Amino acid sequence: MSATLIDTVRSAFTAETFSKAAVLLGESEDNLQRAVHAAIPLVLIDILRKTHYPESTTRVWELSRKATTGDFFGEMHELNVNPGGLVPGSHLYQKGMDYARALLNPRFDPVVAEVSRYAGISLPSAGFITGLVSFATLDAIGRHISMHNADRGALSLWLKAQAESIRPATPTDLGVRTALALRHYPWDAPPKRSRHTALYVIL
Predict the structure, then answer these.
(1) Cα–Cα dist 25/126, whole Å
(2) Burial of 36 from C-beta contacts in 10 A (0-12 / 13-18 / 19+)
(3) Cβ-contact 51, 156 below 8 angstroms
(4) Torsions phi, psi of 121, nearest 5?
């Protein structure tokens, strides 16, 4: 996969996708594009945070390998715009929600709320978009794992290398730190403790 991870995920969302989703969800295409542009950095930054913890990295590795068996692009292709709201896409909806909850837990609800606020769409629509983005992201990571036979350590290094492409794609008015309960972004060095604080901890 020569493209960056964020570019690969973005490429999964075509004009046709937004057109179909707009009919299904009763939202404007422009607002759904805003939702995707909010959900992608939120999901990726959450994944970047997880790379600093072996157990969380293993969780991403396992979910990603599973996602590649879920036929993401086949599901997206079958998404139709028949009457009935999300019913025609319920299988894709359920898969996306399952992946999003498994990946973002316990920050799933705050992330969906922030996507809803930022894009001006309903919470159910924001949940659907967050699920699609989570599924697409895990599928892309899973394909990288398969292509490079990457173990958990190699995956962690590759994901950390994606930070430089994710950082400029993160809208400044997107409430990332609140939604993900971050003290600082994964690409920022944590604030240094003062010498007095360190001495107090030792004592």
Answers:
(1) 10
(2) buried
(3) yes
(4) -120, 170
What is the per-residue pLDDT for 83? Answer: 47
Distance (Å) of CA 56 to CA 99, 103, 180: 14, 9, 15
Length of the chain: 203
Q: How far apart are CA 4 and CA 16, in angstroms?
A: 23
Tell whether the model's pLDDT for residue 23 goes beyond 90.
no
| CA–CA gap between residue 32 and residue 182 (Å, rounded) | 25
Residue 114 confidence (pLDDT) above 60:
yes
Both tokens assigned to 66: 């599973």
Give the residue with greater pLDDT, 76 vs 66.
Answer: 66
Which one-letter amino acid corresponds to residue 165? Answer: S
**Euclidean distance between CA atoms 119 and 116, whole angstroms:** 5
Q: How many CB atoms lie within 10 A of CB 149?
A: 7
Number of neighbouring beta carbons within 10 Å of residue 109: 14
The pLDDT assigned to 15 comes to 93
Residue recorded with tokens 């599973």: 66
Distance CA 43, CA 111 (A): 8
Mean pLDDT score, 93-107: 94
What Cα–Cα distance (Å) separates residue 179 from each residue in 13, 116, 149, 150, 169? 23, 12, 33, 30, 17
The radius of gyration of the chain from alpha carbons, rounded to an integer in Å, stands at: 18
pLDDT at 88 (0 to 100): 43
Whole-number Å distance between alpha carbons of 56 and 25:
33
